[in-house]
Amino acid sequence: MAFTRPWHAHYAPGVPAEISYERTTLSAALKRSATRFPNEVALNYMGKLITYAELNGMVNALARALTDIGVRPGDRVATLLPNIPQVTAAIYASFRMGATIVPTNPLYTERELQYQLGDSGAKAVVALDLLAPRLEKVIPDTMVESVIYCHINDYLPFPKKQLFPLAKKDMYRRVVPSSRIYEFLSLVKSASTGDFEDASSWDGLAALLYTGGTTGVSKGAMLLHSNLSSNVQQWRAWSADLKDGSESVLAVFPFFHSAGFTAIQNHSIWAGWKLVLVPRPDPVTITELIRNYHPSIIPGVPTIFTGLLNNKEFRKLNLSFVKGFFAGAAPLATDTINELKNLTGATILNVYGLTETSPLATGNAWGADFTPGTVGFPLPGTDARIVDLETGTNDVPAGQPGELIFKGPQVMKGYYQKPEETSKVLRDGWLYTGDIATMNENCEIAIVDRKKDMIIAGGFNIYPNEIDDVLSLHPGILEACVIGVQDAYRGETVKAYVVARPGQSLNEEEVLEHCRKHLTGYKVPRQVRFIDAIPKSAVGKILRREMKALDEKLEQERASKAG
Ligand code: AMP
Question: By the 8 A CB rule, do 239 and 366 touch?
Answer without folding.
Answer: yes
